[in-house]
Amino acid sequence: MLKTALFDRWRWAVLVPALILALPVAMVFISVFSPQFAVWQHLRQTVLADYIINSLLIAGGTGLGALIIGTSTAWCISQYQFFGRRYLEWLLLLPLAVPAYIIAYTYTGMLDFAGPVQTWLRAQFGWSFGDYWFPEIRSLGGAIVMLSLVLYPYVYMLARNAFSEQSASLSEASRTLGLTPRQHFWKVALPLARPAILTGVALAMMEAFADYGTVQYFGVPTFTTGIFRTWFGMGNAIAAAQLAALLTSFVLFLLLLEKWSRRKIRYYHQGQKHSAPSRRQVSLTKQAGLILGCLLPVTFGFLLPAWQLCSWALANWQRTLDGAFWQLVWNSFSLAAMAALLSVILALVFAYARRLKRDPVVQFPVQLAALGYAVPGTVIAIGVMLPLAWFDQQIDLFAEQWFGIRTGLLLSGTIVALLLAYSVRFLAVSLHGIEAGLERIKPNMDNAARSLGFRPGQVLRRVHIPLLKGSVLTALLLVFVDVLKELPATLILRPFNFNTLAVRAHELASDERLADAALPALAIVLVGLIPVIILARSTERRMRGDE
Amino acid sequence: MLAIEQLAIAYGPHTVVKEISFALAEGQIGCLVGPSGCGKTTILRAIAGFEAPAAGVVRLQGQVVSSVNTQVVPEKRKVGMVFQDFALFPHLTVADNIAFGIAKLSKADKAAKVKALLKLVGLPDLGQRYIHQLSGGQQQRVALARALAPEPKVLLLDEPFSSLDAEFREVLARDIRTILKQLQITAVLVTHDQFEAFAMADMIGVMQLGQLQQWATPYELYHRPASRFVADFVGRGVMLPGTMLDPQQVETCLGIFQQRYLPETKAGDRVDVLIRPDDIVHDDDSAIKATVLDKSFRGSHILYTLALSGGEQVYCLALSHHNHAIGEQIGIRLDLDHLVLFPRSHGV
User: In a mutagenesis test of the B interface, which of A176, A188, A194, A275 is the best target, namely the one with the most B β-carbons within 10 Å?
Assistant: First the structure.
């Protein structure tokens, strides 16, 4: 028994990488056991309250903003028939392609004193500096608006599915029981969609907690910027890790909320047969209102910033489109491709192990490793840095003692660190896609192929690979794009003098060279559009399949 | 109580319901049957107010609720509906589902009403359960209780048994009929299953392609079908070819039969005579012999498929102890209470 357990290849194939992937987050929590009284005393007296309050306000505000925008647009799209509805249905997803730090500095460029909006206002009304009040975008409120504008699609997607999966007879039942359509929304449709909406809100809030680029650029002190400051400003990595542990606890609470909501979704959908709801026809005036309402978030979350980026990029392309830019593209793409490949290979191993071995020794480590998607990039970066730096130090010491040579930074200053961080953060993305693909290959298909005379290897080649190809490609692409957009972990862990599109855009923007940052930013947004298009197409296909 | 007059409903250029008229008195249960896509559910939805008529009128208690010019919104009609998929609210308990339509009542009144309804539908102890904890038959009963709670003037049931196992259907149909009769509720049921219709309804309407072929009692529908479609759709039977000898007599291979005067026929016309299985009586002494082609045992009865001397096939429902082997010749006699005949259609 013990022997077979020890020599089970699948268990080792899962346990070793899963533990490595779980290590960074574990390190962050382990750091709690090394109290840093002096630093915490200082933090508590100065900035800790700001960190906590600002982070909570930003997450809460973003959650509320995403809730309102996402739910209302989802309701309009799923319930009413109006001109352009089919286009708006996927246009509303577009802001997902824009990372928050990019929209933040785009709006800063548009709205600051020298920007087009204030310039136009001054020209129009003859105002000059100090004559008028204009809202300051670089503020806590501004950060909430920015984050809401790009994160509402999480709520929109889930709420739209929830609303359109509600059987048409539910609303008819409400009406035969004397409720007006408005009462039906508040008493039935909304409570039924609540688990889905909550899941979306939790996801948006997790992203808001994790955001570094926006708050750093806006100068709002939060946990993520605080972790940076404690580590690089105060030079205390352990205290930074402890801050990270505190931040992660907030996020884990949201994660629990999300998991709990997801369970509820399933339970709310039991015993309901689907009958495709018919969308309500409305008058032309109402149609105009609906179009306008749905266009607002698309315009402010995507069209306007994209247009601004394009105009900046076009004005400066002769200067910015140089060898250095192509070097950035190469760095970003090769890094993202490596990370995507690694992540998908890991996901394939994990997914197959879980399919073949139903025992907890395999199931639990995989689930643990997949939790990384909820952990902010800053936290993962610290979690990666601590053990790698320790490892490098030990090797260095060892080599010096025995061979008299210094090995220096073997792993922590290299791409290995980055790849580990990306694998931790994005494993869930690839795992989710591949497990969904594998689920379609029913175990009986294996049995059928075996009974028709194929060996296991042949079953893999003739049945699994053709069926899995699509999911693998999608997973590769999704991780690729996520890595390309990732900012904080890359910023911390990148090798010296190694720049990516995201890092460069952030650096240029921080140096107030907004127009120069446009080209790398635009490249990120364009690549970011690919998964959004895939998402839009797959949901459309699914919806059509229902009808 | 409920009157439908010359009702027509169209989706764009397609008229799905054509000039339907029928009426139900208070406490009567009506049923619309027909193959799927015949427009029966559309009529139900028009009564509930979910479809607007292209022509005609729907009256509830004498008041026009649907016409080309007026359309009372569903929530103001006091029409209850039981949906095909039950449409129970999964986020509410059974008791909250039932109380959903009576939100304006006081708390005590509501509780009393819910309790009474749960007892009525035979689920007195399940008020605190959630919908997903109930079986299909229990969900059906909750859906009925919820629809009855606001004391509707008219109750509509759209294929209420279609998602249940066959064995439950008849019991539940009987139970629901008893409840509706007890409460004196006017109800309209839609189904594609004639046995459900027979079990539930006082009046049955047979629909085909958006038209009401016949509106009659179950007995009349079976024994005096107004059209060939109704004859085919309701019950089992065969069409035996015959020739009119004069407007009162028809000759078939089973003999000459008297019939009431039918204006459309004259001597020499070729007609089809509807023969139900129970019209053919097994009689060993009869001179008419038929060969047993097939038999299906039904417990108390055996349904024989017989071939007549001329090759025509008929059914015969014989008592179970008249057991004959396939291929055997048995004597039969036609015992027609009344003749149902249709002009021979071309090409048949």
Answer: A176
For residue B156, what is the nearest residue in chain A, using CA coordinates?
Answer: A176
Interface of B with A (CB under 8 A): 48-50, 73-81, 83-85, 87-91, 100-101, 131-132, 134, 139, 146-147, 149-150, 152, 156, 163
What distance separates the 2 farthest-apart alpha carbons in chain B?
A: 75
Measure in Å the smallest separation between the Cα of A163 and chain B Cα atoms. 14
Among B51, B76, B89, B98, most A C-beta atoms within 10 A, so best to mutate, is: B89
A187, A179 contact by CB (below 8 A): yes
Q: What is the pTM of this model?
A: 0.80
Residue numbers in chain B where pLDDT is lower than 50: 347-348
Region of A126 please: left (phi>0), alpha (psi -120 to 50) or beta.
Answer: left
pLDDT at A547 over 50: no
Q: How far apart are CA B185 and CA A262, in angstroms?
A: 42
Angstrom distances, CA of residue B32 to CA of A110, A216, A253, B187, B211: 66, 69, 55, 11, 11
Spatial contact of A487 and A101, defined as CB atoms under 8 Å apart: yes
Q: Chains A, B: CB contacts under 8 A, how many?
A: 84
Q: For A67-95, write each residue's pLDDT tens digit.
A: 999 999 999 999 999 998 989 998 999 99
> To the nearest whole angstrom, how far is the Cα of A174 from the nearest Cα of chain B?
8
pLDDT digits over B148-174, tens only?
Answer: 999 898 999 998 888 777 777 888 888
3-state secondary structure A228-249: HHHHHHCCCHHHHHHHHHHHHH
**Closest by Cβ to A167, choosing from B77, B87, B91:** B87
CA atoms A108, A113, A117, A118: torsion sign: positive
Count of helices and strands (H, E) across chain B: 8, 20
Look up residue A459 and give its two tokens.
């079953």
Query: What number is the average pLDDT over the span A156-163?
Result: 89
The sign of the torsion formed by the CA atoms of A430, A431, A434, A436 equals negative
B/e letters for A91-113, b = 16+ CB within 10 Å, e = fewer, are bbbbbbbbbbbbbbbbbbbbbbe
Neighbours of B347 (CB within 10 A): 4
Query: Which chain A residues are Cβ-neighbours of B131 within 8 angstroms?
Result: 270-271
A372, A343 contact by CB (below 8 A): no
Chain B, nearest residue to A268 by Cα: B90
| Per-residue H/E/C for A443-463 | HHHHHHHHHCCCCHHHHHHHH
Nearest chain A Cα distance for residue B207, angstroms: 23
Residue B289: how many other CB atoms lie within 10 Å: 13
Inter-chain contact A192–B89, Cβ cutoff 8 Å? yes
Mutate to test the interface with B, among A81, A167, A172, A177 (most CBs of B within 10 A): A177
Residues sharing a CB contact under 8 Å with residue B311, sequence separation 6 or more, in sequence order = none
Q: Are A69 and A156 in contact (CB under 8 A)?
A: yes
Chain A hits for B88, Cβ within 8 Å: 173, 271
In the block, residue with structure tokens 């460029």: A109
| A172 contacts on B by Cβ (under 8 Å) | 48, 50, 74, 81, 83, 87
Q: Does the beta-carbon distance from B85 to A169 stay under 8 Å?
A: yes
> For residue A179, what is the nearest residue in chain B, using CA coordinates?
B75
φ, ψ of residue B211 to 5 degrees: the values are -115, 145
E-strand spans in A61-188?
A: 80-81
CA atoms within 13 A on the CB side of B289: 5
By Cβ distance, the residue of A167, A176, A192 closest to B48 is A176
C-alpha–C-alpha distance, residues A28 and A84, integer Å: 49
Half-sphere exposure in the Cβ direction for B341 (13 Å, CA): 32
